[in-house]
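To whoever picks this up:

The nightly regression suite flagged Phosphoserine aminotransferase as changed. Nothing in the input moved, so I suspect the structure step. Input below, exactly as stored in the fixture:
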Amino acid sequence: MKQVYNFSAGPAMLPKSVLEKAQAELLDFNGSGMSVMELSHRSKWFIDVIEAAEANLRNLMAIPDHYHVLFLQGGASQQFAMAPMNLMVKNKKADYVMTGSWSKKAYKEAQNFGEVRIVGEDTNNQIPTLTKDMFDPNADYVHITTNNTIEGTAFSELPDTGDVPIVADMSSNILSTPIDVTKFGLIYAGAQKNIGPAGLTIVIIRDDLVGQAPDSVPTMLNYQTHVKNKSSFNTPPTYSIYIAKLVFDWLLELGGLEEMEKLNRTKADLLYQALDQSQIFTAPIKAEYRSLMNVPFVSVNGDQELEAKFIAEAKQEGLETLKGHRSVGGMRASIYNAMPLAGVEKLVDFIKKFEENNR
Ligand code: PMP
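Regenerated output under the current build:
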């Protein structure tokens, strides 16, 4: 089989050992004689899977008991609506920090549900400096996007919002480093980058924020429904939850998120260093705002032909999906948790070789 390193922003690579385990268990899960895909979500077999997935995630992220873990569907995009529908209810106001395309989408959706204010906007792909006095103390929450998948920027520290809960879209950097969950009111993430296959969305929500939604909120869009029914009010995305559980097992075996962070820093440093030294490519984001997960880069001269040649030749080498997002162009290497160091080393070697041949 051809060795491919997939730099896609999502759906993204999964750890090989996870895929091998899933393959080995595909036809007969745990002596059931059935695939996980065929198991009833009410069966003991599957309840064991979802409970282990939750326990593993709690363990990895040190999630306290007064937070609920939910396994939902609809993607992070559905959370753009669900968060305001459930949380923007007391004062019907929220502050949104704008750091890229995905925060804009979250902001736009929230406008349907109350008074939404922009606090801090990225200029030139910089994470804005945020001080406590900028936030409205009467806002129901402050929304941030901790890692900006398209722009390749990330928060290095959280803003101080006082008593106002932070709602965070962590789709593209959840589980990449340890975080203090108690600093957040709600965390959400689509699974298809650092968690597992598409079709699953993880929500971590503080208990006091559940149960505030007005009666007009549809049953499936009310967090309380999913808290009360342990994410099985309707049929949950069973296979995606099973793979997520295997990914959590893999992370625990690796030594948890401290170890994952070390590896992620090694990978990102290696790639940024190669780009900073390059004469033909550059990583445009300033060092202090750089994402550990998504690394955009462009040709120094804006030479689109050279970029297209790079992407095509990289593909020949098994370095897949390096094209930048259609809105920004250039290249983007997404180096999520499951991208092995060897994949980044191969990319760095290829960048150097390409440069020698195209100077
Ligand atoms: N937020 C961020 C930060 C993302 O990167 C993405 C997907 N790339 C989304 C939201 C949308 O996620 P989904 O496709 O799961 O709705």
